[in-house]
Amino acid sequence: MKLYFIGAGATRADYSQAPLGDDLLVQALQLQGREVLNKTCMVRDFLQTFFNFSDALPRLEDVLAFVDFSLSQQNIVHSSYGHEEFQNVKGALVSLISQLLEESLRGESSLHCGRDLCNLAIKNKSVIVSTNYDISIDNNIRRLKRSIDYGFKIRSAGELISEPETIGSTEFVHKFEKNNQVPCVQQNTIVPLYKIHGSLNWLYCPRCDEIDLTTWQKGVIFFMKHEQMVHCQNPYCTEFYRDLLVTPTYFKSYNNRILKSIWEKSERALSKATEVVFVGYSLPDADVTIRCLLVRGLARNYQRPKITVVDRSPTNSDVHVRYRRLFGEVEYLAMDLRQYLDSRL
Ligand SMILES: [Zn+2]
Questions:
Q1: 92 found inside a domain
Q2: From CA 293, how far away is CA 291, in angstroms rounded?
Q3: In angstroms, what is the span from residue 267 Cα to ligand 1's centroid?
Q4: Which of 60, 81, 158, 220 lies 20 to 30 Å from 44, alpha-carbon distance?
Q5: Quick one: which of 131, 184, 124 has its CA closest to 11?
Q6: Residue 46 alpha carbon to ligand 1 centre in Å
Q7: pLDDT tens digit string along 254-283?
Q8: How far is the CA of 202 from the centre of ligand 1 (A)?
Q9: Is the pLDDT at 17 greater than 80, yes or no?
Q10: What distance in angstroms lies between residue 97's CA and the mean position of ligand 1's atoms?
Q11: Of the residues 78, 104, 130, which one is the last residue of a structural domain?
Q12: Is 336 in the same domain as 279?
């Protein structure tokens, strides 16, 4: 069994304008519009307070790591920033970055790298592990008439809608509407897609500890735009939906039942793979937990699988060196995703 491990660069192969790494923070702070103004101001204030930010922005990873670290501590050491303020800053950062990605991944790409990568994965009966929140791989798999196994049981599928409230016409209620037409799924048409950092179409209810799926819609962006006030669809539950996105920092919390299941299934898939193909993933130093996942999964694999890396950076680049240091021997293909797909399809 082949395993495709997909990073942000795989999405970028189709959407060259999509920002990566530090550009995410720069561009997130430049977002315009009334609904983002509060959030960009909040993040700017935060960066000024803790990073003495004037024109040079800190690294996004440092900011996220600092926020997560502070939230994990009992005492927070600033008079204007308590636990709640840190939570709000984290929410604002995740929301801004998600909206930025949403805007830069609009429309269908003419390069079709995502679609062809899914085709290849289906042809090889592969498992896909993805670090991306966006739902372009999900949509490509569904367009190819396949179902997705996310590594846990989805409670229900549907979409978020806005309806005018019956009393008064200016207010809208936002709600989750179940799609009752559950398609008949045949076992051999299921593609395992383990999204280890969460997904923008997963609505998480912390009280029910369940996920409702907004299949084709980025439900998380929808409720972030509407100040996160969407009730869980369970009539006996009063909780609002939240996202289940994991920010790429050192201080990740995988105590959540659903994330744990996804990580365990990813590790098991690594332990059974005959080849692991990394696509658009630069193995950054900050992704300590992913490195541990990879090392653990491969240590359980009795036949050492072939490791293939598809990356545009040249041979002996930092990316190549990082892979060699973690895995020893790797097949390094210094090419873009389109070239790789053309050579394999
Ligand atoms: Zn609930």
A1: yes
A2: 5
A3: 29
A4: 220
A5: 131
A6: 32
A7: 678 999 999 999 999 999 999 999 999 999
A8: 13
A9: no
A10: 26
A11: 104
A12: yes
Q: Is residue 77 part of a domain?
A: yes
Check whether residue 76 and residue 189 sit in a common domain: no
How far is the centre of ligand 1, averaged over its atoms, from the C-alpha of 236 (Å)? 8
**The pLDDT value given to residue 73:** 80
pLDDT digits (tens, 9 = 90+) for 48-60: 999 988 778 898 8
Per-residue confidence at 77, pLDDT binned at 50, 70, 90?
confident
Q: How far is the CA of 143 from the centre of ligand 1 (A)?
A: 30
The answer to whether residues 134 and 269 belong to one domain is yes
Q: Are residues 8 and 53 in the same domain?
A: no
Give the C-alpha separation, 260 to 264, whole Å.
Answer: 6
**Interval between CA 20 and ligand 1 midpoint (Å):** 34
Q: How far apart are CA 106 and CA 101, in angstroms?
A: 9
Give dist(CA 232, CA 241) in Å, integer: 6
Assess contact for 79 and 262: CB atoms under 8 A.
Answer: no
Q: What does pLDDT average to over the chain?
A: 87
Whole-number Å distance, alpha carbon 130 to ligand 1 midpoint, is 27
79: in domain: yes
